[in-house]
């Protein structure tokens, strides 16, 4: 009885939301947003996916590309639909951009291959355009380049303020968006394999905790991206920390003050959806697993609610995980964290809510021990976690399938009503029968 009641309630939620979905008919393969939902070819889209920052780096060596193919193949077999990865590597070892505006052809071909493999396995990619941190260059490298060209800069945060540095970054945006893929023959800005651009991985500006600096920078850069590419979605890259626009929400933050504002930054014109990360083991250190799960529940609840009722945009949890390097780690505790994230997403999605998916950090193929960071998942080596991932993929697929079926029913009813109307018009005033 309880099962039938739950099914009835679920269908009521779907019926309440079906009127929203029937109007969307675009069939060009690009993911778009409509209100608090992602849409793909007229149906709602849910992103169960993964992070793999290393894809371009590894694919730049043709002899190593089998690892990229294996990752996509394994991910696809577990129903994963989205990969998030870096479209940057600035200065240093094996750079994509070895000087402002100067690019390494082999690295770009590596990124071409990544996108072509995603396409081959029916997946979408989120491409991040810069890094807040020093790894792969980041904002520090951009500031270093500007200093070498005579700019007097006080800190790495001048990445967000200095016109010369911003010019370098805009040039990178323009170069990536206009890149011709040597494998597919499609320019990136015209390729539906790409789900979205990300302005920066975890932007932080600790020198301006008011949030004004990042707000101005993200506003300027969002406008610039959209001036080149109207096909793709855009997000900031936020971890989800609340700022001065919502002081009552700041109590939910871990003890960080980094100059971002989840509400204000995501309200910027051109920002299509909200993102949040979730690392309780990093953010509230010296706490037990129970405290971390309690934090995670509150963190997810607040962001899902705010995306739905304040921002009115979809929410993607673009990073989450638990490290085996933590003392007392067990795969059971990691699975509890995954299950918590997945349950919150599914509970929102099945009611037509704003939570649109989650991307765990991070997926590795076998034989990539040098890339292990504590958070990695090798699906063949983590059966319990891999099973949770596959189950979530199936649940989200079922929601999409039900919405699609109901949309088709609505279309059939509209067509039937139209035919009846045509028949009535043709026979109005005509005597029927004897």
From TrEMBL:
Residues 1-26 form the signal peptide. Keywords: Glycosidase, Hydrolase, Secreted, Signal. It comes from the Eukaryota. It catalyses: Random hydrolysis of (1->4)-beta-D-mannosidic linkages in mannans, galactomannans and glucomannans. It is an enzyme of class 3 (hydrolase). One of its GO terms (biological process) is polysaccharide catabolic process. Its EC number is 3.2.1.78. It is found in: Secreted. Residues 30-362 form the Glycoside hydrolase family domain. Belongs to the glycosyl hydrolase 5 (cellulase A) family. This is mannan endo-1,4-beta-mannosidase. It comes from Nicotiana tabacum (Common tobacco).
